[in-house]
Amino acid sequence: MDFEIPARVKPLVSRLRAFVQEELFPLEPAFLNSEFVDLLPHLAEVRARVRTAGLWAPHLPESYGGLGLSLHEFAYVSEELGRSPLGHYALNCQPPDIANMELLLRYGTEEQKQRFLEPLARGEIRSCFAMTEPEYPGSNPVMMGASAQKEGDDYVINAHKWFTTGADGAAFTILMAITNPEVAQRHQRASLILVPLDSPGYRRIRNISIMGETGSDYASHAEVAFENVYVPQSYRLGPEGEGFRLAQERLGPGRIHHCMRWIGICERAIDLTCRRAATRQLSSSAYLADQQAIQHWLAESRASVDAARLLVLHAAWKIDQEGAAAARVEISTIKFYVAGVLQSVVDRAIQVHGALGMTDDTPLAHWYRHERAARIYDGPDEVHKWVVARQMLEPYRVKE
Ligand SMILES: Cc1cc2nc3c(=O)[nH]c(=O)nc-3n(C[C@H](O)[C@H](O)[C@H](O)COP(=O)(O)OP(=O)(O)OC[C@H]3O[C@@H](n4cnc5c(N)ncnc54)[C@H](O)[C@@H]3O)c2cc1C
Questions:
Q1: Which of the four, 15, 32, 140, 362, has the lowest number of CB atoms within 10 Å?
Q2: Residue 162 contacts by C-beta under 8 Å, 6 or more apart in sequence?
Q3: 141 lines ligand 1 (CB under 6 A)
């Protein structure tokens, strides 16, 4: 086992640490206290500097203007970027675009790549992923109301979706809809379809308020409707009836991205906690850092974050070696474990900051509000624990 950061990414990781600190930390007060859309001009300048510096789109192959990193290599980059809420956006590797790019790279036709992937890779447009519906359980998405019926060379789409992250201002979505209702196997009824969001019949109903914030542009989660939307059948992504398989494939690497971003958040929370504890005087002779309770919290955070990182790097390595399907249990393990670590580390950091922790003078409260969802999106904790326990119990089950 080699615990070193791979030689190819080591210099990149140090450059990114400096970049995030120098370029992104100063933008955070504006991000935390205004709408994302207000920040776009500043972020456009930062993104231009990112390109000039040769840091753009680390996950993409060089032929698409990226750095061509493997998933395991990208994991280290994602941790560095996660230290700021603006990190991934600055390098054009933010969710949900990053996972959409990966899916288009793998399954897109030449026409689809030209029309959707190329401008996305250049950062000229954004995209979203519309699977979850208000009327059906997102944790069991074979239950789905969205339909795409063939008419001539087109699909006619009718769907009601919500929690479509980044839909506000996105140019297209990858939509999951039932194309083959006649198939007996429920998980082989749906397909993924690329839908331009300027199509007649598409409507963004609202940006959903989450933990008191409605959000805008990239930082939105929208409820959307598709009423008799026509798209060419050539916009279907991947084979017909394989929507769930592709969505799972999309979510595998996507969970590595999320988990490493969460570890970056944890590292920043630990950094802020140490700074605060070492400088906040409790009395003429004692600092917060002198209190055993605070020392224990720090040690517990350190141990759980380091354990989480090793789990995620192992899962990323396994996906690189054997593919996402073979790493299903590892992926489920990190998804619930790291989401839990994130929540407790940020919570402890807020406690150490006292009233300051409740303000938007640090990013802690933002993460506390927004990352509570980590235990729900891309599959709730309970579903991932079920996947892990099912595999553990399998050899012990009574065979009838
Ligand atoms: C911030 C945020 C962003 C999101 N972004 C997107 C996006 O971009 N695109 C998209 O399509 N979706 C998105 N989602 C939706 C997300 O994937 C779903 O919320 C998730 O899959 C859970 O589905 P649900 O909300 O319908 O919960 P339900 O399926 O109704 O489940 C509710 C609860 O029931 C429990 N539960 C479910 N199944 C089991 C089980 N088998 N055993 C025990 N308990 C169980 C869990 O505690 C779960 O939280 C996002 C959600 C959030 C919060």
A1: 140
A2: 132, 133, 134, 208, 221, 222, 223, 224
A3: no
Spatial distance between the Cα atoms of 18 and 78, rounded to a whole number of angstroms: 14
Distance 375 CA to ligand 1 centre (A): 9
Q: Are 237 and 104 in contact (CB under 8 A)?
A: yes
Distance 145 CA to ligand 1 centre (A): 16
Q: Which atom of ligand 1 is nearest to the CA of 96?
A: 8
Dihedral sign of CA atoms 199, 99, 123, 32 in order: positive
The pLDDT tens digits for 7-41 are 999 999 999 999 999 999 999 999 999 989 999 99
Residue 223 corresponds to which tokens in the numbers above? Answer: 């409820």
The sign one gets for the Cα dihedral 194, 197, 202, 207 is positive
How much distance in Å is there from the Cα of 90 to the middle of ligand 1? 28
The string of pLDDT tens digits covering residues 213-255 is 899 999 999 999 999 999 999 999 999 999 999 998 888 888 8
